[in-house]
Design goal:
Its EC number is 3.1.11.6. Helix content is about 55%, strand content about 10%. By secondary structure, it is mainly α. The chain has one domain: Exonuclease VII, small subunit (Helix Hairpins, Orthogonal Bundle), CATH 1.10.287.1040. Helix 1 runs antiparallel to helix 2. It is elongated and about 60 Å long.
């Protein structure tokens, strides 16, 4: 990855740019491979960010108070 994205949205935008460039039939093989590698790293980054966001979800308890969501709670 050229540089780490600042946030999820920036990573997603870069992924869209890479996807568009890889759809160009004139893209040299080396550039396509580099774009694919960067895209794979960005996908991992996005998945990690989504997992972190999921862990931070809040749920309402029976009293209407917000509590931190943890996957261990039932």
């Amino acid at each position: 990855m050229k540089k780490a994205p600042k946030n999820f949205e920036e990573a997603l935008k870069r992924l869209e740019t890479l996807t568009e460039s890889m759809q160009n039939a004139d893209l040299p093989l080396e550039d396509a491979l580099a774009a694919y590698q960067e895209g794979s790293q960005l996908v991992k980054y996005c998945r990690d960010k989504l997992a972190q966001a999921e862990q931070k979800l809040h749920i309402l308890d029976s009293d209407g108070l917000i509590q931190e969501y943890t996957p261990d709670e039932q």
